[in-house]
Amino acid sequence: MVRPPTQAQLRAAGKRVVILSNYAGRAEVQRRRLRGIGIDPYHVDGVVTSGEIAHRYLSRYQDKLGCRVLWIAWPKLEQRGLSDYFSELEDYKLVKDVAEADFLLVSGVGTLYAGTDAAKGMRFEKDGDPVPFEPMFRAAIHASKPMVCANPDHKVVRPGGWRAHLPGALAEHFERLGGRVIYFGKPYTSAFEEVRRIFDDLSAGGRICHIGDSLHHDVGGATTAGFDAAFVVRTGIHAKDLPKEPNFEDIFQLCRKQKTPVPAAVVPRFTW
After folding, report:
1. Which of 99, 106, 135, 140 has the most Cβ atoms closer than 10 angstroms to its Cβ?
2. How far from each other are the two terminal CA atoms of the chain, in whole angstroms?
3. GO terms for CC (predicted)?
4. How many CA atoms lie within 13 A of 86 on its CB side?
5. In degrees, to the nearest 5, what angle opens at C-alpha 247 toward C-alphas 241 and 253?
6. Which domains does the chain have, with CATH numbers?
């Protein structure tokens, strides 16, 4: 969460702000949800989501992918902002059997056959066990059906401190079994280039600092794309991997362990 005073100070200092999120829904939906996560949309110049980039891909490449989708998502799609995801993808059809599908779309990990009357709850978010998905995955791989991953995150810290397993981890298992995955979002350069285009349109200059708490998705992705990266250490997925007051050696060793670049800056929290 970005605290309101921080947002106002950035605006007062003339800084442009773009939110880059591995949210599996549309960018406009994420903009409407910003207040709920403590961000004032007034101080945001643009929103880029992995789900928006994936949606654009689906709209352009139906001939390549096919139109029958086996969707892995979340229960209560409306609460997640996903209930209208296919409203502008009218030619796509959600199916409830891998044999009928042309490809798999992973937007969440809580529901198999999402959007159909065969929707089935899954426990992967809490237990991280991909085995219940394996029969369906193996059938898809045997038939050379790809997976589109609209959220490459592996884990996130939920309220209460527990670590939830996310779509990126499920997609990675699909790859380990021999499947092909098409990823959208951080750490992939296409997501950061989308941000760069927004800044270019705003004539904001080329000095961009990406701020995030994941060494792989934020620091690694930003550095590869040519952005500076500020690593948030007190909150997020690496908070328990570091001492309360980490020094440079602590950061360096964690980056070495995670096989990521060293960030340009380290901040306890994203506050002014």
Report:
1. 106
2. 13
3. cytoplasm
4. 18
5. 55
6. 6-50+187-267 (3.40.50.1000), 61-183 (3.40.50.1000)
